TrEMBL record:
One of its GO terms (molecular function) is diphosphate-fructose-6-phosphate 1-phosphotransferase activity. Its cofactor is Mg(2+). This is Pyrophosphate--fructose 6-phosphate 1-phosphotransferase subunit alpha. Allosterically activated by fructose 2,6-bisphosphate. Tetramer of two alpha (regulatory) and two beta (catalytic) chains. It comes from Crotalaria pallida (Smooth rattlebox). One of its GO terms (cellular component) is cytosol. The keyword Magnesium applies. Keywords: Allosteric enzyme, Cytoplasm, Glycolysis, Kinase, Magnesium, Metal-binding, Transferase. Pathway: Carbohydrate degradation; glycolysis; D-glyceraldehyde 3-phosphate and glycerone phosphate from D-glucose: step 3/4. InterPro entries: ATP_PFK, PfpB_PPi_PFK, Phosphofructokinase_dom, PKF_sf. It catalyses: beta-D-fructose 6-phosphate + diphosphate = beta-D-fructose 1,6-bisphosphate + phosphate + H(+).
Amino acid sequence: MLELQQLQLHLSHQKQQQQHCFLLPFSSLLFTCSSSQSIKDMDSDYGIPRELSDLQKLRSLYQPELPPCLQGTTVRVEFGDATTVADPSDAPSISRLFPNTYGHPLAHFLRATAKVPDAQIITEHPAIRVGIVFSGRQSPGGHNVIWGLYNALKIHNPSSVLLGFLGGSEGLFAQKTLEITDEILSTYKNQGGYDLLGRTKDQIRTTEQVNAALATCNSLKLDGLVIIGGVTSNTDAAQLAETFAVAKCPTKVVGVPVTLNGDLKNQFVETNVGFDTICKVNSQLISNVCTDALSAEKYYYFIRLMGRKASHVALECTLQSHPNMVILGEEVAASKLTLFDITKQICDAVQARAEQDKYHGVILLPEGLIESIPEVYALLKEIHSLLRQGVAVDNISSQLSPWASALFEFLPPFIRKQLLLYPESDDSAQLSQIETEKLLAYLVEVEINKRVKEGTYKGKKFNAICHFFGYQARGSLPSKFDCDYAYVLGHICYHILAAGLNGYMATVTNLKNPVNKWRCGAAPISAMMTVKRWSPNPGAVSIGKPAIHPATVDLRGKAYELLRQNAASFLLDDIYRNPGPLQFEGPGSDSKAITLSVEDQDYMGRIKKLQEYLEQVRTIVKPGCPQEVLKAALSVMGSVTEVLTAMTASSTNLSSL
């Protein structure tokens, strides 16, 4: 009894010590609140020093690389030609809604010694106040954007201030801030998660929200507002930039492409912070499952991967780990495959493997697959429409159209319940909550049992195990690539603000090469926008609002072609590949995503090269030049113009399909 009392006393004393340990750091945190709020109203967990493992401590000491153009205190800025949008038919709608931020030029950041006649060096660096906010789901590397921006601010003027908004956009609206300091950053450098500031995933869409953001920036006298996020968050950033310009608010808005989905891709953005890490961590998990499947030889693993509507994560993980099958949402949508078509496709694969005496396998599914199936997508549209009308969940089924009701009742109860979840703020389904892997495993088992009874399948019993990989990876320590990429983007954000640019996104191209060859720049967010059109009724065309829309897997791209070349071998030969755990040093630490490496990108570099060629033509072909030179220039330019006009028309027609 005495020993028990001593143990309880010891534990009580230890608990008090722990409480004191967690309370002490708050004295070092600098909070700024609106007059209507107090410290007690805020979540006091934000910004507290982390307890780091030995590996985390080692990673916190890693200093990300900077490309030559950002090294030192002097950076040269070169502005290119005015930008446009990919689809010329979208230009009128976008320019009408973004008159103050549309058509602005690209910005290229060059080393100070670069001999470019039109480039300028920004010599004055007054102290500025900048706000930064996490918007959207956490993605590995986000903290390094803050670190990069903070370092750039302090290098150019130690009196500059960086304020982090607590709790994402909600903190932005409520003016809840944390001043970033060296001490606060010390345990968040090269670390995963968004727990330094917290985040939200809601859009900044209502008039009240936009006005609240405007009021915050005016009240805090911010010179810049940096929004870290994906397609939705950067669309919001563009809207805020335009609103601020109209309101004559001095705050400049900058976007940063950070999303694990990898779907913020366009001619200016090659990949997103976090995508590299997510795919590497998931690929290790998948390859472990592949090894397990090959060892037991009796289970089929259905693995759903986080990534929203696009299948970029699923494609990259397939190329890294070589599972037996992957069903991309883009393939399903392009071929208009039904739920029964997909089920048959998987069953045929199971049967083909059974004929080789193989009763195991690994099948990858993107979480957006469910919305790519035509009849399920139409069903979701009806359900969401009824939910927005206020129809009770219990009454949804009775108010569906006959065909939708029939499909709904056919589905297993657990899927019906998940389809009834209220849609996200962007009107999409709650994809992470819909267990597509379990649905397909169930349907495949039913079909295989049917084939057994019919005598067409004579193999062993089909056994399925289901997984959903997403949360396991998005809080990971970021890869070396994501650490560098995010840190560089943070530095670029400062130079965008120093150049007085509003409504721009920080960009880095030539990413498949080493850091010393990366090209740094900025592009107007409005140049990345498109306008969706659809026909609700025959003869009628509805036009959506301009937005950055998620980029889907290019079924004509090199990465998809690489998958097609190996699909048959992956299916039957079990050539599983294990990339191993995420590496920070040594072999594998500098590897890049396969989908990034195989594509031929560097759009910004090519634009700059074209400008150099055009400048050379202007230099050579001047009034007074020889007649032969002028004729040759006209002939070549005429041919080039004709070809480019035809290509542009073809591209526009394809994008409208």
